[in-house]
Design brief:
alpha/beta, Alkaline Phosphatase, subunit A, Arylsulfatase, C-terminal domain, 10-stranded mixed β-sheet, binds 2-acetamido-2-deoxy-beta-D-glucopyranose, lysosome, N-acetylgalactosamine-6-sulfatase activity, N-acetylgalactosamine-6-sulfatase, calcium
């Protein structure tokens, strides 16, 4: 028996089991769509309409410093499932500087055949994987989830945009595994006038059924639960419509919160809660450009979706695994959706691919030992690294909200939050004199720490993707900070 086998056997014994065949922990990733950091009661949303998520946090670990890898759906989801930055996994664009890439129905591309997705790797340990809800990594047949490691799918390759007129631009299809089973607004109704749709209930039922089936068969599973009710046009079913103090967006949040409560309760009733890692987060910040009725809250953070300000990149996040993750804990770890890839592999005992750079970090020491790991966060918009965070310091090398052209049509990425020289409407390069914020003192990125002196030391390396350059980036930041005369160590809290 190899050392690895011994460790795996011991590990399986330690993790323990209710009964029957021992298998690794189940993984559930609950990924919300455009939900903001400030939408959860536990993060201070004043209406306190997320009792189930608040209890989930009380029973698990809350992450106030959790980030997406890109402030838009497709690249964010690609990063989660590959553990890699969009500049590595292909979900970026070079046809326009600093533009986020995604896959609307007109785009023929999708996730590269060369990328290895989490469910493909989990197959090595006989995991059954299902995606419920939005995929968004390409809608042509070769890009669909069942071609990239998932065994089952109920949902759609895209957002529920529309309704469209059938002949010229059809409504977005809904799939049941490899079969198209209908379309949004047709077989799967969304009433944009009243906001009524039963889709979250359907996604909930699909989730509960899948969990029951795998528990009965005693098979380990990975469930990627990705409902889209909080993406504009927001919707909720009749029982939730009109219930929120926050309007229709809040109704959608209440229904998702209720569903999450039901999924966790189901795990408990099946007795598999202590062998299931559940992670809740969102794909990008709230879409504040959609207006108050159609978007959520990014709490104290600047701007939202599409931008690399905190409102676009910082996500609500909770980890839950009763008996393994200490209840009622808060981790100030700087963490990323890409870490869900690495952490899922680690807890299931699957080795990550060794032929490519993985940007995710294994959060096991954080989850199980409350450790703090030293790591930067890189903020990308399309092909451009816009900013870096280390500890409490964030350095912007580029700033941009949206173009004057778009802004003048009434689309505002930072409504009510413009900061002169920061939320710029032209792409501004600050490499020679980076904009630095202390996110502990100034989470809203309103008061740049001014640099004095010449900026010559800052013009190195900023344009290159991280990797071997991480240490350079870190020392660059430390150099910037030292240059300011700020004393004391830069730590993760
Ligand atoms: C998991 O929970 C069940 C009861 O729900 C219990 O019998 C079992 O010992 C627990 N296992 C561990 C490892 O805590
Ligand atoms: C569908 O849209 C096209 C282009 O906007 C328009 O010419 C056509 O009349 C529309 N058809 C229906 C049935 O609405
Ligand atoms: C999807 O198809 C399966 C059979 O393949 C069926 O049991 C299930 O009810 C379908 N789901 C929905 C929501 O139609
Ligand atoms: C939702 O389901 C209920 C109960 O089956 C039904 O009465 C209602 O028409 C459905 N609503 C939509 C928008 O599909
Ligand atoms: C757990 O945390 C303690 C205290 O911070 C540290 O000394 C120890 O090395 C950690 N153990 C692991 C396995 O990370």
């Amino acid at each position: 028996m190899s050392l690895k086998t011994v460790i795996c056997v011991l590990w399986a014994v330690c993790v323990g089991h209710t009964e029957g065949i021992q298998h690794g922990p189940n993984i559930i990733i609950m990924l919300m769509d455009d939900m903001g950091w400030g939408d959860l009661g536990v993060f201070g949303e004043p209406s306190k309409e997320t009792p189930n998520l608040d209890v989930m946090a009380a029973q698990g670990m809350l992450f106030p410093n959790f980030y997406t890898a890109n402030p838009l759906c497709s690249p964010s989801r690609a990063a989660l499932l590959t553990g890699r930055l969009p500049v590595r996994n292909g979900f970026y664009t070079t046809n326009a500087h600093a533009r986020n890439a995604y896959t609307p129905q007109e785009i023929v591309g999708g996730i590269s055949q060369d990328e290895i997705l989490l469910p493909e790797l989990l197959k090595k340990k006989d995991y059954v994987s299902k995606i419920i809800g939005k995929w968004h990594l390409g809608h042509r047949s070769q890009y669909l989830p069942l071609k990239h490691g998932f065994d089952e799918w109920f949902g759609s390759p895209n957002c529920h945009f529309g309704p469209y007129n059938n002949s010229v631009r059809p409504n977005i299809p809904v799939y049941n595994n490899s079969e198209m089973t209908g379309r949004y607004y047709e077989e799967f109704e969304i009433n944009v006038k009243t906001g009524e749709s039963n889709l979250t209930q359907i996604y909930l039922k699909e989730g509960l059924d899948f969990i029951s089936q795998q528990a009965t068969a005693q098979r380990p599973f990975f469930l990627y639960w990705a409902p889209d009710a909080t993406h504009s046009p927001v919707y909720a079913s009749e029982r939730f419509l009109g219930k929120s103090q926050r309007g229709r967006y809040g109704d959608a949040v209440m229904e998702l919160d209720d569903s999450i409560g039901q999924i966790l309760a189901h795990l408990v009733s099946l007795g598999i809660h202590n062998n299931t890692l559940v992670f809740f987060t969102s794909d990008n910040g709230a879409a504040v450009m959609s207006g108050a009725h159609q978007s959520g809250s990014n709490g104290p953070f600047l701007c939202g979706k599409e931008t690399t300000f905190e409102g676009g990149m910082r996500e609500p996040a909770i980890a839950w695994w009763p008996g393994r993750i200490p209840a009622g804990t808060v981790s100030y770890q700087l963490a990323s959706v890409m870490d869900l890839f690495s952490t899922s592999l680690s807890v299931t005992g699957v080795l990550p691919p060794d032929d490519r750079v993985i940007d995710g970090l294994d959060l096991s020491p954080v989850l199980f030992n409350n450790s703090l790991l030293d790591r930067p966060i890189f903020y990308y918009r399309g092909n451009q690294m816009m900013a870096v965070r280390i500890g409490q310091y964030k350095v912007h090398y580029w700033t941009w909200s949206n173009s004057w052209e778009e802004y003048n049509t009434g689309i505002n990425f930072c409504p009510g939050q413009e900061v002169p020289g920061v939320t710029t409407h032209t792409q501004e390069e600050h490499t020679m004199q980076p904009l630095i914020f202390h996110l502990g003192q100034d989470p809203g990125e309103r008061y740049p720490i001014r640099l004095h002196g010449e900026g010559g030391v800052y013009d190195l390396y900023w344009d290159q993707p991280p990797g071997g350059d991480r240490n350079v980036m870190a020392s660059l930041l430390r150099t910037s900070v030292a240059h300011l005369g700020i004393t004391g160590p830069i730590t993760a809290d």
